[in-house]
């Protein structure tokens, strides 16, 4: 790589990655920067590495399609704290985002661009006993995350058996599947029962909307898990009804964001799998 004009490099380095809602026209800057380049040479801003260049190129491989790590991404990664005590509204926000990731995965996106972006899905849990100082995380979110993994495992196994439609495109990727396999489907259902009991007994007036949405998510997850295990069409219909109830509640109550809970550039952690 060759660094050309110092003025051009300084101008490149000054470009902000912040999303301020406006577009920057850099056509003239690019023309100046590339005007006297020889074949095979390029101009780069300081701090833009070869890894960033490779991950900025879309080649239909998740390992090379995660983009440059911006300052906002780095701050979000630094803000991740598994020990953070969650509220029910925060647990709802994570659960809804995780559900969206799962649905996107079903649309043939890769694990590292969907489910694996959720740090609560990829971290190591120690569920322990019933006593906890973080009930929204351990008694509500954890059961939903584990049950999501149980459902994903059964779908993954069907993919591995090549039980696909002829036009269905599935990205397995190099990242190893992790679906809480230490928990059986029955274990996952027991955890959902515990989450339901906790939600029915806890929550104040302020949390009522979040509790109702979480209860609907728990019920939908239980029905969907049964549908995958038992191949029961009635469970599919029941899951759809519960998800409709959640969908109607989203505009009014989508929970409170948990900064750092999702790592959009998590693929960088799996670079060694390339």
How would you explain this protein's 3D organization?
The protein has 274 residues and is an all-alpha fold. Helices cover 50% and strands 0% of the residues. The protein is built from ten helices and no strands. The radius of gyration is 22 Å and the shape is globular. It starts with 5 loop residues before the first helix and ends in a 25-residue tail after the last helix.
Average of pLDDT: 79
- Our estimate of the beta-strand percent is under 5%
Number of DSSP-assigned strands: 0
Kindly provide the radius of gyration, computed on alpha-carbon positions and rounded to a whole number of angstroms: 22 Å
Q: List low-pLDDT spans.
A: none
Major beta sheet summary: none
Overall outline: globular
- The N- and C-terminal alpha carbons lie at a distance of 23 Å
Number of distinct helices: 10
Q: Please state the structural category.
A: mainly alpha
Order of helices and strands: HHHHHHHHHH
Helix content: 40-55%
Spell out the blueprint of helices and strands:
Layout (H helix, E strand, L loop, with lengths): L5 H8 L13 H8 L15 H6 L15 H9 L8 H19 L12 H4 L12 H26 L24 H17 L6 H23 L2 H17 L25
Helix pairs in contact: 5-7, 5-9, 7-8, 7-9, 8-9, 9-10
Summarize the entry for a quick read:
The chain is mainly α. 50% of the residues lie in helices and 0% in strands.
């Amino acid at each position: 790589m060759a660094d050309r004009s110092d003025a051009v490099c300084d101008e490149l380095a000054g470009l902000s990655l912040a999303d301020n809602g406006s577009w920057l026209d850099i056509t003239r800057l690019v023309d100046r920067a590339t005007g006297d380049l020889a074949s095979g040479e390029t101009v780069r801003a300081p701090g833009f590495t070869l890894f960033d260049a490779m991950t900025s190129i879309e080649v239909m491989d998740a390992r090379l399609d995660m983009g440059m790590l911006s300052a906002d991404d780095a701050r979000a990664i630094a803000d991740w704290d598994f020990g953070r005590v969650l509220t029910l509204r925060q647990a709802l926000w994570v659960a809804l985002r995780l559900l969206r990731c799962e649905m996107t995965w079903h649309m043939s996106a890769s694990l590292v661009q969907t489910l694996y972006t959720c740090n609560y899905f990829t971290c190591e849990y120690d569920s322990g006993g019933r006593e906890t100082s973080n009930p929204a995380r351990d008694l509500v979110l954890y059961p939903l995350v584990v049950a999501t993994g149980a459902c994903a495992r059964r779908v993954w196994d069907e993919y591995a058996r090549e039980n696909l439609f002829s036009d269905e495109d599935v990205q397995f990727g190099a990242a190893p599947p992790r679906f809480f396999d230490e928990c059986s489907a029955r274990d996952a259902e027991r955890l959902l029962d515990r989450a339901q009991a906790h939600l029915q007994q806890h929550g104040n007036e302020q949390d009522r909307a979040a509790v109702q949405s979480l209860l609907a998510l728990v019920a939908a997850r239980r029905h969907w898990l049964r549908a995958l295990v038992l191949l029961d069409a009635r469970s599919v219909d029941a899951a759809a009804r519960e998800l409709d109830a959640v969908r109607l509640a989203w505009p009014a109550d989508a929970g409170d964001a948990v900064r750092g809970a999702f790592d959009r550039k998590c693929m960088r952690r799996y670079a060694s799998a390339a």
